[in-house]
Amino acid sequence: MTKDCEFLINTAKQAAEIITDDFIVKAKGDKGDLVTNFDTEVEQFIINKIKNAYPAFSVVSEELNSDKPLADNCFVIDPIDGTVNFAHHIPLWGIMIACVKAGKTVAAVIFMPKLNELYYADKTGAYLNDKKISVSSLPVEKSIYSLEGRGLKPLREAMKKYSKHPRALGNACSPFSWVAAGRMEGMVLAYDTVWDYLPGQYIVKQAGGFIYNAPGLHIAANSKELLEVFKKEAGQTIKS
């Protein structure tokens, strides 16, 4: 395990200790999204840890640094991915952090405390609770896949001719993690916020999967075949 990955793991675990079931929920914008006090508290905690250990690195994060561009040396943070799930006591939410050095992601962690699942990856591979993981080998026609984001109904319909097993989990952390662990075969995310896809895609890639990014379209898949299917159908149905 690299030192960068060890730092991410320790930071995510410590950040999770801040979170309790006693939280304050507020509306975020006008699109029905939510934010809790822990979104900002956890994010600030992680930022403070980064500034102490990596003072020269910048931070891109959902709540406090959402307008910062991705830099050659930076950290990307989603303090609570799946806040709506969290606010409704659905355990599908997690802390996501990635470390970027010289323009390349070198380590990432996704910690889902309520499931007791810690996913992480570095140059040595991808892991779940310290056990190495890899993507599944199932063909496209047997694949289970997650479609996350708005405006994906046409893609859902188009995908039925390949596999009739779509899911929508209300977050990015669990489907990306589960593709890496071989529980699902694919994930399509229609958000362009880098904290939603960069950590998860890196873990999938290090687990042997395939990724693709375009405006309004971020994909992870267990095989090149499924990746190409997503690219073809999403390109025809999603407008960036």
Question: Can you offer a commentary on this structure?
Answer:
This protein has helices spanning 3-16, 37-53, 83-87, 153-159, 173-180, 194-206, 224-237; strands at 25-28, 33-36, 58-61, 74-81, 94-101, 104-112, 117-122, 125-128, 131-132, 145-148, 166-167, 186-189, 210-214, 217-221. The chain has 240 residues and is an alpha+beta fold. The chain folds into 2 domains: 3-132, 2-Layer Sandwich (Fructose-1,6-Bisphosphatase, Chain A, domain 1); 140-237, D-Maltodextrin-Binding Protein, domain 2. The protein is globular, with a radius of gyration of 17 Å. The termini are far apart.
Topology summary:
Elements: H1 3-16, E1 25-28, E2 33-36, H2 37-53, E3 58-61, E4 74-81, H3 83-87, E5 94-101, E6 104-112, E7 117-122, E8 125-128, E9 131-132, E10 145-148, H4 153-159, E11 166-167, H5 173-180, E12 186-189, H6 194-206, E13 210-214, E14 217-221, H7 224-237
Parallel strand pairs: 3-4, 10-11, 10-12
Antiparallel strand pairs: 1-2, 4-5, 5-6, 6-7, 7-8, 8-9, 12-14, 13-14
Helix pairs in contact: 1-2, 4-7, 5-6
* Portion of residues within helices: 25-40%
The named CATH superfamily of the largest domain: Fructose-1,6-Bisphosphatase, subunit A, domain 1
Helix-and-strand structural type: alpha+beta
CATH architecture heading of the largest domain: 2-Layer Sandwich
In the CATH scheme, the class of the largest domain would be Alpha Beta
What would the CATH topology of the largest domain be? Answer: Fructose-1,6-Bisphosphatase, Chain A, domain 1
Q: How many alpha or pi helices?
A: 7
Low-confidence stretches: none
